[in-house]
């Protein structure tokens, strides 16, 4: 199959607007690489059905799709309204209650029992990713009485944030454990944990999964200000990260989001961990056929800065134009990638603490970069067992595909989160790499007179030396 897709990977949240198999098919054809199931919404039956349909459509099209299960973490949410949306106006009084009631424009329930004890008069509370702001007047029994400072439209199950208030709950909750078990038993490829604050939150997910007999790819969602203080440790502990700008834009002053995004992205790139930029990327396409200039620019800038994946949330979950939104991301990505400079290998290594020890992996990357100064090869072929070698190459954003060849199905699935990586499963692994590379270059429709093949010792071939080979495709 010829590759025509952008190198940037596209993650789409599946919801009512996209759970029809025909829409899924169109989304895959438009460029979706990863389907995200948000376990904050829907029930197990609906998620189970979506997983089955995604696998069926992916098999039908012969296109690899990864499934990401997003675990809610300790996100507080409001309950439901009898009729919605409700309109809150500045100056209105509005009560949050821990009683299990059906809400109206005066009152709504919240999912956190200790809320009245956790807040004090004057505290600011944020609803629906901060669109609505409340000020606490008083906590009385089960109720928190508030004044609306910034009003707006409010719907059932929207999030509630209390920036800066320590709720004393760890990220991985009992509910997350149930969702994790369901997701793993249903064969998802990766899980993302919300509201991670330190490496121990990532470890909690890994331990729980291990107890269930699984070793999933774990993505840490960066959406708490506390996570930024321990970002290096979190990146080291996780397999990838998501810059979850919905909650992050409430928990951190919104004027700092751009700089936080750039800093976190660079750190993840240096560590060769894939990074997803998420939320409001094409927000206006929830209702409109075309994005705003600001949105189109935001997507392109994230790609130029080094994101591996761009993500759709409400646009694909509940919007009017899920397929068009995927197509728009793909078009913007193809256009931006043509202008992205290779991240200079030597420059990047300056940012990594090598402690005076240059690893062979680094020298190989420098060798590959040197080739690009003279000639553009058809592709960089990387045999890889865990995927780490492929990611360590692809982080430099070479202008050609990194074709990752692995005998492991899970490795191929996990590489769908990495920009510029085209995973191919081979079982058994090729014997004659010269012939194999030539055949793949032709099959994938790649162009060039040479190809690069990197090698490293693996568990299967521990005797192999690290190396870079330049293969002449003309003979
Ligand atoms: N499985 C689903 N079923 C119904 N609605 C969904 C589903 N998934 C997403 N949605 C809708 O799409 C919206 C946007 O999705 P998104 O994943 O960004 O959720 P969110 O509520 O903002 O929370 P989070 O911070 O967990 O991402 C949701 O608020 C919800 O209204
Ligand atoms: C995706 C997500 O959780 C957020 O943006 O907050
Ligand atoms: K979630
Ligand atoms: Mg969030």
Automatic annotation (TrEMBL):
It is an enzyme of class 2 (transferase). InterPro entries: Pyr_Knase, Pyrv/PenolPyrv_kinase-like_dom, Pyrv_kinase-like_dom_sf, Pyrv_Knase-like_insert_dom_sf, Pyrv_Knase_brl, Pyrv_Knase_C, Pyrv_Knase_C_sf, Pyrv_Knase_insert_dom_sf. GO terms for molecular function: ATP binding; kinase activity; magnesium ion binding; potassium ion binding; pyruvate kinase activity. Signal peptide: none annotated. Pathway: Carbohydrate degradation; glycolysis; pyruvate from D-glyceraldehyde 3-phosphate: step 5/5. SUPFAM superfamilies: Phosphoenolpyruvate/pyruvate domain, PK beta-barrel domain-like, PK C-terminal domain-like. Residues 376-456 form the Pyruvate kinase C-terminal domain. It comes from the Bacteria. This is Pyruvate kinase. It comes from Syntrophus aciditrophicus (strain SB).
